[in-house]
Amino acid sequence: MLQPAASAIVLYGRASFDKAQGLPAMAGRLAPTLPPGTRVAWAFADLTGPSLPDVLDALAAEGVREAIVVTCMVPADPTHATWLAGALSQWSADRGAQVAVRLAPAIEAALDLPAAIRDVLGRPAAEVTLTPPSLGKPGWSKIPEHGRQIFFCVGARCLHRGAEPLYQHLRNRMKQHRPLAAGPRRAMCARSSCLYPCNLGPLMIVYPDGHWYGGLTRDGIDRIVSDHLLSDRPVAEGIVHRTTADGAVGG
């Protein structure tokens, strides 16, 4: 069990989901239920800070000697959990184990996340130093062979215009074509924050071609996949802007 005054709980979640989770507020509600003096902090895995290493560094500076990290990502991601143990072990090795860090059992599902957090804190936590230190698999140092990168805007205005289901539609359509998954025609696709011409959204950019597609629809995405990504024929009527190596050319 945690020892008062020298212990901490760190709630670890995704900033992209925090409007629903509210980790800072949850930390405030959790603190009174813990042994007196137990510090409760939070960290984010994506988009913004504070990062988990920064939070652990701050706790070490405060004199905390033991910290339990509770991953608040529901449903749990097994690949992330495997990576996290090694990354925390690496942090411990780099810092000379200033803080004994343990991982609480994963929260598999939760309609009541605060109750689920209290539940996992009552179960044994894993010592991260038992996992070999690692910030990632060896293969993560290699850039996959690919021909294009796609940035799909999921900023606030594009999201309001239906960007998320359109992004999922794009991913599903791409999965139907093996050449887009590996080799020289592979298209690496990622969500992005706001790309700024919000009135032209939903938006996506195809690089290195430099084509910005706006006003996206499911049918329009189908054509971009079949004509542009598979056949190298940009869909002219969907292009709202072009960027070249020499500068920008309006759409």
Automatic annotation (TrEMBL):
<protein>
    <submittedName>
        <fullName>(2Fe-2S) ferredoxin domain-containing protein</fullName>
    </submittedName>
</protein>
<dbReference type="InterPro" id="IPR036249">
    <property type="entry name" value="Thioredoxin-like_sf"/>
</dbReference>
